[in-house]
Amino acid sequence: MAGPVDELLPVAAGGLGIAVLSVLGTHTMKGRFGTDRRGCGIEGAVFGIWTNLLLSAFKVWAGLVSGSFAVLADAIHSLSDVLTSAVVVAGIHVSGREPDRDHPLGHGDAEPIAGLIVSILLVVVGVEFARTAVERLLKPDIPQVTVVAIAATLVALAYKWWVTLWVKDVVEKVHSPALKADAEHHASDVLSSVVVLVGVTGSYIGYPRLDWAAGLIVSAWVCWVGFSVGRSNIRMLMGTVEDPTVRQRIKDLALAEDDVKNVHRVLIHYTGLEFSVTLHLRFKRDMLLSEAHEIARRIEDTILDDCAECKYVTVHMDPAR
Question: How far apart are alpha carbons 9 and 31 in whole angstroms?
């Protein structure tokens, strides 16, 4: 009969294997998709697909060997990351297309749409596993899990923490809403692994229902992350200006011109991460149109130079009252 040490050897080997394959994957993908914002974003999402394939396979094995539902639920959580990361890749790819006749402001909304799809998938997965956990908790006999569940969860926790930090570092560089949603999904894996660790440890020491309770908590957490990510991306699709200082900054840049008497109706429209601005300026009544036009052109250039996320500026010139 295999002892605890014999049971843990495959876990250690599996953990070492996915770590080595992840590092190799990181070096293989480095710069493969380009070094611009779009390329880095795709690289981050593809890295998420690769690492989650490795991690989900490891968790499925550990869940089946140990008899832990919580570990299996966590495995499906990781497997859903593969699908959501694939959606992110598609969203970033589409958003990088140049403007065309049907999309004069570009395709930037593809990223928050991808993020919204990610959130829906998260909620669906969470609800399904919550239902299964509740059904199992109501049954009278629940077997205890083996030590493999504890060891595998510790390995998964450390590994996922590293993956989350890696992807969040990419998000800081590229500011992609779709990749940010994907990073939140990675972070939820870290927290879910903590819950799973509590559940499988409790089950191992004689409280088997804790394993299924942990699975239920993980499912609820997945639903909450999906809801939060969805709300954030819906706000972006609705054109919500998250930073109230943006509008004031644009006004200040326009009022820096001495001949501008008033700035009003500053309209900001987001397309993905980038936005276009329309603003109305009042000039002196006796100013020549050519002079007003030159000032308006300078203001447009100033706003474009100062606001990296601003793609288009339209200035309407009105006479002072």
Answer: 36
